[in-house]
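PROTEIN DATA CARD
Card holder: Isochorismate synthase
Chain length: 368
Origin: Aggregatimonas sangjinii
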Amino acid sequence: MFPALKARINEQLANGLPFVAYRKPNSDAVIGIFQSSTTVHKISDYSSEGFIFAPFDDIGHAVLIPLHEKIVATDYRPKVVPPSPKFQVDSTQRDFHIQLVQKGISEIKKGHFKKVVLSRRFQVEAKDSPIELLENLLSSYTSAFCYLWYHPGVGTWLGATPEILLRTVNKEFATMSLAGTKALQADNASEWGAKELEEQALVTDYIEKALNGKVANLSASGVETLRAGILLHLRTKITGQSLVGLQEIIEALHPTPAVCGLPLMAAKEFILQQENYDRQFYTGFLGELNFKRTEQRSSNRKNQENQAYKSVKRCSELFVNLRCMQLLEDKALIYVGGGITVDSVPEKEWQETVNKSSTMLKVLQNVR
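Structure generated from the sequence above:
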């Protein structure tokens, strides 16, 4: 089935027709959803069924590929991805990013916000085909949500993200607080500094307050360490039952302090004024919206009467678009960022973006 899915993807690309291909974390299934026209389906509400792709700044500009044609391939086998070529760090951005971080720290000390997430975008020349990049992603990051999105009216994006924005099954709700980053090192894998722990606590506290009154039986797990490629993050799982509609939950969560800052509006204003570029869909969200799942009402084989009855559940699974790149002809734009608090060290924040860039650079094999 995977060769058939690849052929269908290449057919869509050749005809300039929208599609998305993706694999959920730790899954064997690669899913393709295909659109037969070039129409840009904007989200008017969150009752539609399909795959949603939403930007950082305005979820009113979210785009949907409706669930009309779907192919599921369960026979994908990871391939060996050779070491990527050595990429020279684009040091021309170093001074600007360090100055940007210094401005952010200064605003924090003035009390304008407690945290701000600052990012940058850099360009590399590449000649890999989109399907080659997708296969490299699938093989390199089995525990991440990997995707390739194409729409002639939106662009070509692909990425591998470890962060869930939300999962819902009818009214059951789950999200996560993901913040704090460091490179994987065997000698200090379980040790976290004050900066990372504070950053994680800020995000968790914000999410709990944002969901207050919207989610019943809200529960947060303990903080745990999550590995994502060669990086480590701090994560807290948060669950409950939704009391309001899906759109209201999404609006309460996006953008989270993990990709924007706290307080939200002050941090967002600083980002839009100071980053000096348009994030577009970087730090937005994407995934399955209102997919229907049919289940037997009873799993007891002896209960033959109930076996005749089925329940249909509406499920959404949305991910934050973190480690990603945008393809422009023979170029790739790579997006990276990090959370800034009062304890941040500008030079270390620069290095964190360099470390994070390795996630996407690893899948680029053919460079000009």
